[in-house]
Amino acid sequence: MRYEAPETLEAATALLAAEMGIARVLAGGTDLLVQMKTDMVDPALVVDLKRIGEMRTITKAVDGFHIGAAVSGAELKEQVELKQHWPGLVEAANLIGSTQIQGRATLGGNLCNASPAADSIPALIAANATVSIFGPKGRRQLAVEDVVLAPRKTALDKGEFVVSFHIPLRAKGMGDAYLRFIPRTEMDIAVVGAGIGLKTDPSGVITAARIGLGAVASRPLHVKAAGDALVGSKLDKAAVDKMVDAVRAACKPIDDKRGTIEFRIKVAGVIAARAAAIAYDRART
Amino acid sequence: MQETVKKLTPEPEYKIIGTRPQRPDGVDKVTGRARFGADHNLPGQLTGLVLRSPHPHANIRSIDVSAAMALPGVKAIVTRDDFKDQGSEFVPAGEMLINYRDVVRNVMARERALYEGHAVAAVAALSPSIAKAALKLIKVDYEILPHVLDVDEAMAPGAPILHPGMITAGMDPAPKRESNVAKRVEFALGDVAKGFAAADVIVERHFETKSVHQGYIEPHACLATVAEDGQADIWVSTQGHWIVRAHCARLLGMDISKIRVTATEIGGGFGGKTVVYLEPLALALSRKAGKPVKMTMSRDEVFRATGPTSGAKMRIKIGATKDGRIVACDGELKYLAGAFQGSPVAPGCMCAFAPYDVDHVKIVGYDVVSNRPKVAAYRAPGGPISGYAVESVIDELASKLKLDPIAFRLKNAARQGTKAAYGPKFGPVGLVESLQAAQSHDHWKAPLKVNQGRGIAAGFWFNIGGETTVSIALNEDGTLVLMAGTPDIGGLRASLCMMAAEELGIGMDAIRVTIADTQSLGYNFLTGGSRSTFSSGMGVVEASRSIVKQVCERAAKLWELPTDAIEYVDGSVRPAGANAGKHPPMTLKQVAAMAGKTGGPIVGSSSINAHGAAPSFGVHLCDVEVDPETGRTTIIRYTVIQDAGRAIHPAYVEGQYQGGAVQGIGWALNEEYVYGTDGKLQNAGFLDYRIPVASDLPMIDTVIVEVPNPAHPYGVRGIGETPIVPPMGAIANAITHATGLRFQSLPMSPPKVLAAIDAARAVGDVNFKLKVA
Ligand SMILES: Cc1cc2nc3c(=O)[nH]c(=O)nc-3n(C[C@H](O)[C@H](O)[C@H](O)COP(=O)(O)OP(=O)(O)OC[C@H]3O[C@@H](n4cnc5c(N)ncnc54)[C@H](O)[C@@H]3O)c2cc1C
After folding, report:
1. Architecture of domain A1-48 in CATH?
2. What is the ipTM of this complex?
3. Considering chain B, what percentage of its residues have pLDDT values greater than 70?
């Protein structure tokens, strides 16, 4: 196995594009190294992205935040301003693993590992994030919900990787939240995850809502109908019930060691409703 | 709170017993200097890896290792052909029995692979990657057979048979047909029909528990070397190195004296390290390769091929009179043994009704094989399973009789003189005292909030003694070296040191304690059955008293007085009685310095079969909160109350109480072996085999009750196993009181609880009482 740690986007792409065998980019390695150790993947080339400056920085611009794809969870936690704008997203990223894992795990890795249960993806969907992708043909942007196609499968082409995430600034009256259901309290994989981003007008009426779901289908979902169900309401019971129905209708989970189909569908609605209450509260304060 | 020690009898003034000094192995453990199984290495060592069956049940037609052997860097391969077959012979392993016919087949599959993960071959190579590559080159020709995992299916006529020709033992007349039922056991007292006839209320329920693993953090690991002259050494993480020696000698056809076993520090065992897996393979590989061989299991292998304890299906029926007297108990237990016979169904039967004084008892158990890994002992093997079922029924009876569950238990509690259904009459035991401590504990009276419930359960474990050797040598400077042979899993070295220091009237730091290897001390049975503080402690006391006696003799000689004119007080000898004051006292140090001149080195030793182990009863209180919308249970508060006889080092007793409760919480709420229809284990790792993490738990409160065991010089009872017996019952009862629903199947995981909640809502169950906020 060859290990490379290029310092530019171009050099990284060139290495990845030229490799004939299995190539993997390495961010924190908390998924990749585990997969290599358990013989799930045996790459010929590993390209470490952590020496590329743009991928390790967070900047705030007029159009929003640009978060490098190789920024660790622990670094995100230090970002006071980002936390003020998108507390739900930062909380989701900080749910990943433990203190030790947080020192390494990244948003880019969480997304590109392409697990349907990844914690940060529903929160990124709720925050209306787009990703900036770099590859042999240069840069392109993609909505975050369009990156994961299926378990372990992304929309990235050979030689491409995610450079950064773009998230709009939080306007007045916006709020977000992410909750997951796990049988334990930590060190577990989401059986269901729900991220909610809301916008309210000064009277408290919801004017826009985005709902992302994890672990209830073969990939993280953006459930437009569920968000729409809340629009025009003040998060009253009828609207929440409608939203919960839309969430449950969108779930296409599997029966497995982590939960039954019925359980996941049911609890997805419960968790989404609880997350919506938190997001609404945040939007109003 | 952990500070409560309930002293129930006036006791001698101890200086050290009952205090909380630092443990002798503490600094090494916190600095990382302590060397566990995988921390031992030798120059030139090879890596040993095991090829495991991917099939739950298959005939092994042939094994071709030629391509693997030809791979450069491969130094040895062993298969079934390297181990002589063994006849049927049962020997004790902890509190369980093992059969050498089965042990040889479990360490290396012979005719068949009997479970997914069953060892089929082992390779020793220059590096892990070569060994891995070699495994892929071994060609095994399997004929796949239908498999069976469920206990009822395994018992049903027409089930795939694991061991052709196996006839159920313990049946009269013996069945004519082969089956997967290895054994039937029965324990009875009185006449249950007569008992039930006198009952006003009878509750009969069925229960199920799943296979759960001991979950020790340290995977199995060993380093073995066999020299050209056949002398072998093995370093291994084990609960009993003399047992490892015996099993390896038998399986490899070696003399016992040829094998020296050193027990490394151990990162948990809980019963699972009382048997051999890698050790005979490593020795066989080393013997073949002429080089040391190191083997360590991955976590995946630990789950697939070691441990677990039985899953079970049970029927429990108990009858009581209106005024709360239990008149009859009846039960049937079916325990999964895994691929080979030897489930802990007999102790499960014996424990089931042990906390209660009942005249009419009958309990029948079945030991059933299936295509799962062979079970190993797990903390109070068998007891927690039947205890869960019985304590659930006891709770339901108390509710039906409208009796306080502690009062109901007190009315029926086993006490001194009670005859247990499994035979003996109890001596002084502490169940009544533990129940009374529960009754007066503020936990029992604390208010509960909505969706919360409180449960209580009692539990019992026998505890054992057994063969033990201890040696204490007085050094030239008056310090001492203490050697014991029961591996220290839970603070044993501290407790032994304390007992020696108490006897000798000296400070603990004058004594250095070692767990000796098999070459340095006489035979010791393993650490299991909660025996080590009891048995090795007895040995320590005897050896210490021998030192005192010898020291007195030396002084007598020196002072030219009869030995009985000498007394030993607080670490010094002095003339006593009529001769008092004739000579100034001599310290242990002074006697030690003159030992050479007064007769030679002073060594005290003890080789005993420790008798008089006494049972320990415990009572657990637990508060839970159940989420009405997700079925998730949170443990809000937990208190363990248990009779320790006497707590030598209370902090380590508390540690055992807490650890048992925590393992029980995992067993109750989330832990289970999950199999696919293909017979393969789906959750062979800590991600999906969910033992509790720290944040899942409240601080586990403890109360140590002390009803001394008269057979032990300090009153010690074993305490390590009882704490895992009550949790499942206590938690199930707490969930019942929170929800109004009874759960008769473990684990009470969120999907199962939510399904029950939904069903109760759907039918408008009047008992159901959770409220959505
Ligand atoms: C103990 C433990 C606990 C965990 N708990 C959680 C949890 O609670 N929730 C959760 O969601 N996950 C959890 N994980 C999984 C993992 O930590 C996360 O998915 C993490 O975010 C991965 O980030 P990483 O930087 O370590 O990824 P890496 O392992 O470096 O990479 C993961 C995958 O993504 C690819 N990749 C990485 N960065 C990029 C990029 N910029 N562009 C394209 N491809 C890229 C890699 O090639 C690899 O295939 C846990 C893992 C462990 C070991």
Report:
1. 2-Layer Sandwich (3.30)
2. 0.95
3. 98
